[in-house]
Specification:
The protein has 177 residues and is mainly alpha-helical. The chain has helices at residues 10-34, 43-54, 76-84, 120-127, 135-162; strands at residues 70-75, 108-113.
Amino acid sequence: MTSAPPRTGVRGAWTTFWLAFGVLFLMMGSYSLAVPQGASPDEPAHAMRAYAAAHGQLSGPESKAVPGTLDLTVSEYFAQLEKHMPCFKRDITQTPACVTPTADQDATTTGHSSTGVSTPVFYLAVGWPTAVLDGAKGLYAMRLVSAALCAALLALAFVAVRSLPARAGRRSPSPRA
């Protein structure tokens, strides 16, 4: 009877990681690019928070205009995401082509984000592309960074599961009397 080859090892772990990462990132990245701007639930609020964090504003004062939100200094593009999204939200006859951002890429304004209780660490990690990219390019780059981080964490989970012993979880046969 031959024994199963070992399931661990540095080389096997890296192979598992990169294979899982590649497949997962391909799926997540494709979805990130296919979804219209501002169409994901709460995306405008998260995008504004990430933009603000990347530009040095980790938190903001509680908004007097929109209770339960933070006032954040963001580019007009990100502030307008929330205003333009409703043109196709809950209307199956309307396509996202109705979104017409008219924002000045360099101008900033006050945006309202409901993500005040969330830690700024995630927003710093995914918001940095907005420091070099404007508007939709910055939004899609943030989505791709988020997809890469999620794919990497899930790939690590695949490596961890793959490194378990081959017979983990199986019951050993009961001894016969």
